[in-house]
Amino acid sequence: MPAWLSALRDLVVDASPLRRFMLALLVVLPLAALAAAWLRFNAPAYQTLYAQLSDRAGGEVIAALEQLDIPYRLSPADGRIEVPADRLHAARYRLAARGLPRSDDAVTDAASDAPALGLTSAQVQQRQQRALELELARSVQALDSVELARVHLALPKVSPFLRDAPPVTAAVLVRLRPGTRLDTAQVTSIQTLVAASVPRLQREHVQVIDPHGVVLGVAEPAPAPSARAAVEHDLARRALAVLTPWLGEQVSVQVTATLDDSETVQTVERVRNVVVAGEARPLEKSVRTTRVPEGRVARVNAIVVLRLDAAPEDVRRAEQMARQALGLVRSRGDSLGVFVLPAAAPAQQSQAPAAPQAVAPAVIPQVRAAEPAAAARGVSVAIMGWGAGLAVLALAGFFLWRRREPAPSAPAEDELDAVLGSLRSEVLADPRIAADVVRLWMRA
Predict the structure, then answer these.
(1) What sign results for the dihedral spanned by CA atoms 348, 349, 350, 351?
(2) What is the pLDDT of residue 152?
(3) Which residue from 68, 218, 441, 292 is spatially nearest to 60, judged by alpha carbons?
């Protein structure tokens, strides 16, 4: 025997009972800790056996697992039944051999298959209605988006003593699969299916409801316009009604109104003196209360945009007409701005020859690129006219000078007239560009 083992034996033999107990604890406790750690880190993995079972079906499954000696556990989150992963399929097969789990519909079907002997007519009708509801629920569950469905029918009795029988109604409760939804067409299909399966049932009397109590397939009513939007729309309509007969469709109006949300109550008390026997006595008193309702207009800001080249007098006239139509008041800070946008240049009716046509358009883009700010500012009508005339003369002199130079491809007399006519049309179409051309030449 080794010396250390003999020494350990002598230590145990010579020790007191308390010391022997302490030595036993020193040996047992590490072994127990090692066993607990091994069981903790090597516990069998559990997988879901069945989820979302009813209380009755879940109780039947748990009782069968206890009889089959199969360990299980319940998920505290949603009550799922879990079993070890290595026994999952065996547990499902053995439960299926016992006909488990059974749905509530299967239990109802089993009760419906019971003999009808001794049942009253009301009980027979109730059994038939229940069977119809189950079949309709199974048909609705056949949709891909529906996980569970229940159908409830309200079938009133038809009496010959009633002229108008109560309508047949139905409610369909559906639970959708995660991440899916029913659109309006699918809801209509469910309503059509149920209505076509029940006599005297119309589609509009079938309601489809989700588990949150929301009726599906019902269009939400459009929100009522606010008081501010109604006032702005009415003011813009008034301005357009005045400006459109004069300017046509080439005008747009934008109105922004500020409303006062507070209600003002003003009380005025008046005392009337009546002269009696040469003496003034206050015999009559009148009280008048004025209520200014909330939502009254506090300030109006409007913009009128004319989509054409309007003259200054037309702009002033449009401003006066719009101001009167909108009922603007300067004392409360109302403002009105009238702006004019240039109209698009008309397309050329005549086409110039290829060689001279390439000269004139080459000048205009350069001017537009050189001075976009000058073109945006514009010039007055008188300066535009003089600029147009100077541009025509300058361009005519330019082409006459080019004609004097000896060139093998000089334009003929009629070609020059055509070029001048085309340039004149362009200048008259947009005189601002011609004025910019002359200004650029004068600066050069």
Answers:
(1) positive
(2) 94
(3) 68
Per DSSP, which regions of 322-441 are E strands?
A: 335-340
> What is the structure's pLDDT at 368?
38
Amino acid at 295: G
What pLDDT score was predicted for residue 313?
83
pLDDT value at position 348? Answer: 45
> By C-alpha distance, which of 383, 398, 362, 397 is closest to 436?
383
Q: Long-range contact list for 129-138, CB < 8 A, 24+ apart?
A: 129/153, 129/155, 132/197, 132/198, 134/105, 134/108, 134/109, 135/197, 136/172, 136/193, 136/194, 136/197, 137/105, 138/105
Length of the chain: 444
User: Omega of the bond prior to 101 within 30 degrees of 0, cis?
Assistant: yes
Query: What confidence score (pLDDT) does residue 76 get?
Result: 83
pTM of the predicted structure, to 2 decimals: 0.37
Amino acid making up residue 411: P
Q: What is the DSSP letter of 87?
A: G
| Residues of the chain with confidence (pLDDT) below 70 | 1, 43, 103-117, 219-224, 261-295, 308, 342-417, 419, 427, 433, 437, 440-444
> What is the reported pLDDT for 443?
63
Using CA atoms in the order 56, 59, 63, 69, what is the torsion angle rounded to 10 degrees? Answer: 140
Report the C-alpha gap between 42 and 129 in whole angstroms: 54
Dihedral sign for Cα 325, 327, 329, 333, please: negative
Angle, to 10 degrees, between the axis of helix 360-370 and the axis of helix 431-443?
80
